[in-house]
Amino acid sequence: MLGKLSWAAIPFDQPIPLVASGVVILVLLGVVLWVWAKGYVPYLWREWITSVDHKRIGVMYCILGLVMLLRGFIDAIMMRSQQALAFQSNGYLPPEHYNQIFSAHGTIMIFFVAMALVIGLMNFVLPLQLGVRDVAFPTLNSVGFWLTASGALLINMSLVIGEFARTGWVAYPPLSELRYSPGVGVDYYLWALEISGIGTLMTGLNFVTTILKIRAPGMTYLRMPVFCWTALAASLLIVAAFPVLTATLGMLLLDRYLGFHFFTNEAGGNPMMYVNLFWVWGHPEVYILVLPAFGVFSEVVSTFSRKPLFGYRSMVAATMAICIISFLVWLHHFFTMGAGADVNGFFGIASMIIAVPTGVKIFNWLFTMYGGRIRFSSPILWAIGFMVTFAIGGMTGVLLAVPPADFVLHNSLFLVAHFHNVIIGAVVFGAFAGYTYWFPKAFGFTLDERLGKAAFWCWFIGFYLAFMPLYVVGLLGMTRRMQHYDVAAWRPWLLVAMAGAVVILCGIGLQIAQLVVSIRTREQRRDLTGDPWDGRSLEWATSSPPPAFNFAVLPDVRGQEAYWGIKEHAIETQHLVDEPEYRAIEMPRNSPTGVVTAFFATVTGFSLIWHIWWLVALGLVGAFATFVVFAWRDVDEYEIPAEEVARLDRVRRAARLAMLPSLRRPT
After folding, report:
1. Among the listed residues 170, 232, 168, 161, the one whose alpha carbon sits nearest the alpha carbon of residue 480
2. SS3 state at 412
3. Max alpha carbon distance in the chain (Å)?
4. Cβ contact 592:577 at 8 Å
5. How far apart, in whole angstroms, are the C-alpha atoms of residue 622 and residue 605?
6. Residues 6+ away with beta carbon under 8 Å from 95
């Protein structure tokens, strides 16, 4: 009746996961009861859970990413503390639990932290910067988010019901094959990523369609902000690369469930084919994450330098060059496979060439800052910290692109340090820069600057303390995934790395405090103008937070920095453009399709993991029925009357008119 599921799946003999899961369950129950007692359930259902508004969905993506960041960072602290303690001893984590922790850490941080944060920022900002009302497919957008949340839920369920994979986040065969991983851990990994990957692919298709087909009048390609270009490149990579991952994991599922031999060591299978296919997705994935962060830094550097972005067209060219070349470098992840000098040489050279357009971007940001009147607010601190950190990560990446050097350093902690140098220095710093920069646009009040700057310095210093020592122990020969060790020379460096993780923890604590303090003092922090940073692109042309329709009248774009030109004209004349003729606006209706589909996807994934076949059938039938009901909707839009549009826009215009005297540009 329940397949492989039994009471033995609950880890009663392992106090750490049992206590951790108990605390999580109690916290979730407390939140649910509090929401119920306060009467917030109807509001949450109407305004958030069933919303198809790109802004609400973007915020929910970011909330998911930040919550999963806490979950993934707990794994990181456990790994660092284990290695700090495990000199000539077994530490406090059993080997099988330690293996699950580093596998979960990598999977969560890549798929449910980095991906969620960058997609959240793209969701919120793209339609606003393009000057349009929403994405091309609003309901599909909701389904994509909730499928991502479904995958995250499955991974967290493995904490208390069963186990997670012990294979590392890449799940290489033959270790991930049924013979060597007979438990459900690899199945949790595979089904969570299959479900969330489908959601991500939907999002990529949505963004590509939106950018290519839906833009404000006059918004030509070479008038789009650089963030839109980086989002387009990342979305094209999603559309091209994620089907490869889905198919690869599908073949591994066929190996495990039906005895196929795609990646086995016998019957014609080849484990190295999995490695090739995985990294055909995996290296473009690095740029799926990094390119939107580059877009964030472009917006932040230009705004806080009070200058147009230097070399706009070269930035666009560099972005699209990275998009293309990223598919020609995947083999540098396994130079040691034995492909031969010619193949290794080709991929090594391609890996060095891709550093050129990245260098172009770095110099363009520096030239933008040169001669600018820089305001050192917290968003640009994240940008400057990124440039320093990413330059180091990029140089170590070029070193690893040299096959002879990679033969020595492959699978060492030097590689781990490089990877985190890139992902934390670019993606996480970029996400925090975007979070700080666009927070007042999303919620109508600014974040506490003092706590924000303190959090940045803790992250920046903590990062260097945590990961620079890993370069050293990697050069000293320490390999990845070691649960314990007996080399005395490694221990001091690992203790410093542990101290760095604690400093980063302080930074996270300060960010939580910043959010709490800012919410409590939000009335003093209100942004009535919609433009707290003196921004240059169209998202700052609307109120904070923006209305459901974004713009009362779609902007008429006449230059590269559309909003900056509008402001310059208003400052010169001390007069806003004449009030437009307001018309009723049709917007898409809320839909529970996303959350209901995700519910059935979670049921289906969980039952497939545990071989509960009757429940699999029910889940698939429920998901199909949800789509049928959605397809047969009679009314899919609602109308906002012209009077309501006019009322909201007049409030915005009054605030803008009041701020005009203070916006005179210095001569």
Report:
1. 168
2. strand
3. 78
4. no
5. 13
6. 483
**Residue where the block lists tokens 């609602």:** 638
Selection from 197, 250, 153, 164 nearest residue 595 by Cα: 153
The DSSP line for 22-71 is HHHHHHHHHHHHHHHHHT-HHHHIIIIIT---HHHHHHHHHHHHHHHHHH
Nearest one of 239, 269, 240, 275 to 254, comparing CA atoms: 269
Model pTM score: 0.95
pLDDT tens profile 157-204: 998 899 999 999 999 999 999 999 999 999 999 999 999 999 999 999
Quick one: tokens of 345? 């040489």
- The number of residues making up the chain comes to 667
Handedness of CA 596, 598, 604, 610 (dihedral sign): negative
- Between the alpha carbon of residue 581 and those of residues 24, 134, 187, 250, 648, the distances in Å are 53, 21, 57, 54, 14
Q: How far apart are CA 399 and CA 405, in angstroms?
A: 7
Report how far residue 528's alpha carbon sits from residue 544's, in angstroms, rounded to the nearest whole number.
Answer: 7
CA dist 369 and 600 (Å) reads 50
Task: Record the tokens describing residue 255, joined without a space.
Answer: 């190996």
Dist. CA 538–CA 518, nearest whole Å = 25
Q: What is the pLDDT of residues 71-106, one digit of tens each?
A: 999 999 999 999 999 999 999 999 999 999 999 999
DSSP character string of 556-585: ---SSSHHHHHHHHHHHHT-PPPPP----E
